[in-house]
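Reminder to self: tokens first, then the designed residues, so the page reads top to bottom the way the pipeline ran.
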């Protein structure tokens, strides 16, 4: 009986270890998939650039000739804000691309993106601060013909001259 008990105990422990290892493997696979998607969304944003004001959205949309290209750019902006910046909007449906199976038009996507852009600038002690302030970023430089990545943290924003650029600003980085 003792041998049976020890054998069963060892078998249960072995099954428990296998189950825990499988859970760890699944979590790691999910994390890797999330990182892969974030990298893909970041590559899209590198192509389209991050639009940070309503006027910039309008100007960038004028540069696209086809509606399909415009929709791709708008979707890239929204996906990046949702999945990489983890922006929290007042209405979670601003991240949607369709309603009841019907795709949004360019105007509807533009309106949603403009609202997200406006909400990205939050009031903080009577000054406005962009949601990127305080976030860690990877920044790529080309040095001696070689591409190098640096990890940094956005420490502040510097507003541009209002007479030249409406509602635009630059962010300053601190490299770690």
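Designed residues (176 positions):
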């Amino acid at each position: 009986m003792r041998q049976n008990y020890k054998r069963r105990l060892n078998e249960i422990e072995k099954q428990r270890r296998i189950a825990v290892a499988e859970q760890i493997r699944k979590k790691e696979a999910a994390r890797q998939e999330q990182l892969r998607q974030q990298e893909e969304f970041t590559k899209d944003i590198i192509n389209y650039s991050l639009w940070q004001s309503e006027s910039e959205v309008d100007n960038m949309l004028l540069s696209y000739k086809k509606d399909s290209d415009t929709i791709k750019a708008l979707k890239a902006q929204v996906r990046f804000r949702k999945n990489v910046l983890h922006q929290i909007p007042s209405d979670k449906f601003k991240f949607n691309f369709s309603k009841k199976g019907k795709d949004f038009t360019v105007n509807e996507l533009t309106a949603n993106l403009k609202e997200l852009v406006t909400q990205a600038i939050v009031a903080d002690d009577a000054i406005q601060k962009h949601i990127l302030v305080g976030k860690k970023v990877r920044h790529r430089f080309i040095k001696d013909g070689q591409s190098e990545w640096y990890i940094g943290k956005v420490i502040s924003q510097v507003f541009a001259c209002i007479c030249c650029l409406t509602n635009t600003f630059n962010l300053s980085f601190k490299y770690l």
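The first strand starts at residue 98 and ends at 99.
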